[in-house]
TrEMBL record, chains A, B, C, D:
Residues annotated as transmembrane: none
Any one GO molecular function term: DNA binding
Coiled coil spans: none
Species: Scopulibacillus darangshiensis
Keywords from the named record: DNA-binding
Positions of the HTH tetR-type domain: 1-60
DNA-binding span(s): 23-42
Name listed for the protein in its UniProt record: TetR family transcriptional regulator
Family matches, as InterPro entries: Homeodomain-like_sf, HTH-type_Tx_Regulator, HTH_TetR
Amino acid sequence: MTKDKLIRAAINNFSKYGYQGATMSNIAKDAGIKPASIYYFFENKEELIREAVQAILNHHFASMKETFYEKERENVNVLFSELFGKIVLHHTENEDETKAYVIMVNSPISNIKKQISDYLHTYNNWLVEQLTSSIRRHHPDLEEATISEMIDYFIFIGNGLFWGVVIHDKAGIQRNLTQASHLMAQYVTQILGSGQNEKQQGH
Amino acid sequence: MTKDKLIRAAINNFSKYGYQGATMSNIAKDAGIKPASIYYFFENKEELIREAVQAILNHHFASMKETFYEKERENVNVLFSELFGKIVLHHTENEDETKAYVIMVNSPISNIKKQISDYLHTYNNWLVEQLTSSIRRHHPDLEEATISEMIDYFIFIGNGLFWGVVIHDKAGIQRNLTQASHLMAQYVTQILGSGQNEKQQGH
Amino acid sequence: MTKDKLIRAAINNFSKYGYQGATMSNIAKDAGIKPASIYYFFENKEELIREAVQAILNHHFASMKETFYEKERENVNVLFSELFGKIVLHHTENEDETKAYVIMVNSPISNIKKQISDYLHTYNNWLVEQLTSSIRRHHPDLEEATISEMIDYFIFIGNGLFWGVVIHDKAGIQRNLTQASHLMAQYVTQILGSGQNEKQQGH
Amino acid sequence: MTKDKLIRAAINNFSKYGYQGATMSNIAKDAGIKPASIYYFFENKEELIREAVQAILNHHFASMKETFYEKERENVNVLFSELFGKIVLHHTENEDETKAYVIMVNSPISNIKKQISDYLHTYNNWLVEQLTSSIRRHHPDLEEATISEMIDYFIFIGNGLFWGVVIHDKAGIQRNLTQASHLMAQYVTQILGSGQNEKQQGH
DNA sequence: AATGAATGAGTCTTCATTCAT
DNA sequence: AATGAATGAAGACTCATTCAT
C-alpha cells in the first residue's frame, strides 16, 4: 500500500537525515510516487513524520511484548537474558528505526518530543509491571524495593546494550550481550544469595 | 573571538537540529554576525561543522585525560568510579556537545562519519593503554586477557552510563552512576577474588 | 509553452550578458514566471543554457539546409550568392542568436565548448559535402583539390561576412554582401577560366 | 607593478568569463594581492575593466601603427599582405585580448560600448587616411572613390581573417592568410588592370 | 489516487565594496 | 601599499505546499 510505503520511506529518510534533512521529495521518490501525492495521504510533513515515529514506537512495543508472552514463565536469569537478546535482535534487525529513535530522543520538535516521552512513560510502566509480576512469581518473598532495584539494574544494563547496538558492529554487539547477561546474573545472584532481602525468611 | 563564537554557535545549532537543520543564518545570528561573514572564517558549512565536531571530540579527549592524570595512581575501584563520574560530569556539563555527538554518531555525511570513527579509534586505543598500565600497577600478576576483559566491561558499563545521561534527568543519572560503580566493583571483586587469573599464584 | 519561453528568454539573456551575466531571475521574469519554476523544466542553469545553445545551433542548421534545398541546382555563382545572402539574413534576423554564438565560441564552460565544436564539425562536414556535389554537378571535370579549395575560399569569405554582421549596421552589411559575392565570383572565374584545373580538357 | 598586474589579470579574466564573470577576487588572486587592495588602484570594478579595455585597444592601435611605419613605402600588394600578416600576428600573440574584444564588441555595458565605438571610429579614420596616402603614393591617378572602395575590400577581407583567428587553429589561420592576400591581390589587379579607374591617364 | 505546474519562503554561497589599521 | 574583518545585495537552488485536473 502506498501509505505504508510512505511511512517506511519516511522512517528511512528520517533515520539518515533527521527531521529537516528528510525531504518530502526524497520520501516520495523512495515510495515511488510524486511529492504532490503525499498530501493525499498526510496533511503535511509533520503529520507524516508523526505517524512514522508512532510506527517505530509501536513496533518496538510489539517486539518486547512478544518476548514477554513467550518467556514470562522462565526463571529470572533466563528471562533477563531473553529480554537482552530481544533488545539486541530488535534493534539490529531494524537499524533504521533504531537510528531514528536515537535522533528523535532529543528532538527540538515539541510534538515528537511529547510523543517519545509519552511512549517512554507507557513502556516503562508496562515493563516494570511485567517484570515485577514475573520476578514475584519465582521469588515471592522478595521485597518490593528489592524488585524495583533489580528492574532498575536491568534497565541500566539494557541501556548499555542499546548504545552498543548503535555504535558497534556485529561482533562487538554479541560480546556486549554476553557481558550484559553476565553482569545481570551476577547482580541477581548477589541479591538472592544475600538472603537479607527476602521478606519472610521463615525458619 | 568571532571564529570561536561561530564554533560554539555551530555546536549548539547542530546539537539541536542536526546537520541540515543547523542553518548558517541561525549560526551567524547566535554568533552576533551576518551570514556572509561566516565565509571569511570557514570555506563552507561542511567545513564549519567539521571544525565544530572536532572541537567536541578534542574537548572530550581533554576531559578524559584530565581525570587520568589526576587519578591514575588510585586503586582500580576508585579509578573506575572516578572515570564513570567524569563521563557523567563531562556529558551533563556539556549537554549540547553530547547531543551533537549522539546525532553525528550515525551521520550520513561521510566526512563527519570518518572524523568520528577516527576519533573513536584513537580514543579507544588511548583508553585501553592507560587503563592497562593503571590496572597492572596495582595488580601486576593479572593476565593480559583478564585485563583486557575488565576494560571491556568498563567500556560496556560506561556506554550504559552515557546513554543514561542522554535520556535521564539529574536524579536518574546519579542513580545510574551508583549502579555503574556497583556493577563494576562487583565484577572486579569476582575477577580478583577468583585467583585463578593471577599469573603466578605460587606462594 | 513555458519551456519554449524559457529557452527564448535564456538565449536573449545569454546573448546580452554571457553565461555568468544571464541570471535565472531575469530569465524567469522574461518568461513570465517565478525563478523557482524554472527548475520544474530544467535541472539547473547549465542545462537550461545547454538547451538554449542547442536551439541556436539547430536553428542555424535548419536555415542553411533550407537554402540548399531551394538553390542547389543553381549555377555556382548564384549558389554562392544565395548562401551568402542566407548567412546575412539568418544572422540579421536572429540578432540575439548571433550574439550568443559570438559569446559562446570561446566559452570556458566545457560543456558549451564541446557542444559548439561538435556542431561546427557536423556543420562543416555537411556543408563541404553539399557544396562538393553541387559544384560537381555543374563542373564535373574539376579536380577534387580544386573543389576543395574553392569551398575553403567560400568559407573564408563567409567568415568576413559573418563578422561584418556582428559589427556593422544594415548599410555596411549590404555593402559586405556585394563584396563577398564579387570576390567569390572573381575567384571562381579565375579558377574556371584558367582551364588548367579541368580534369580532361582533351576532346 | 601591481597596477599593471591587475590590468593584465583583468584582461585575462574578462576574456574568459565576460564582465559579470570576471570577479574582483579572481582578478586579485591572479595579481597576487587581496581583493580589498584593488580599491587602492581603481575606484571600482567598472573603472578597472574600463582601463583594461583601453589597454587592449591601445595595444591594438600600437601594433597596427608599427606596421605602417615600417611598410608604408612598399607597393600596395606588399602593404596589404603585411597588414594582413600583422592582424594575424597581433591577434594570435594576444589571444586573451582578442577574446576580450570579441566579447565586448556587443557589451550591454554602455561605457564599454562607447569606448569600443569611439575606438573603432578613430581607428577606422586613421586606417583610411594611412591607406589612402600609401595607395596614392604608388598610384597617384586612382580616383578617390576607387581608393575608398579598395580600402573597403581590404577591411572586409581583414574581417574574415580576424574571425578566422578566433575560430581556427594555427594551420587554418595560415591558410586564411594566404587566401586573404590572394583575394586582395586579385582584386587589386582587376582594379588597376582595368584602367578605367585611373583618373586621367592622358598622354 | 495521483500528478503537472507553480510558487513563497528560505538555504547556502558569492560578490563588490567599505573601513579601520 | 595592503589587508583583515565585515556586510548588503544578489545568485543559484531547494523545499513544503497548493491546486486544477
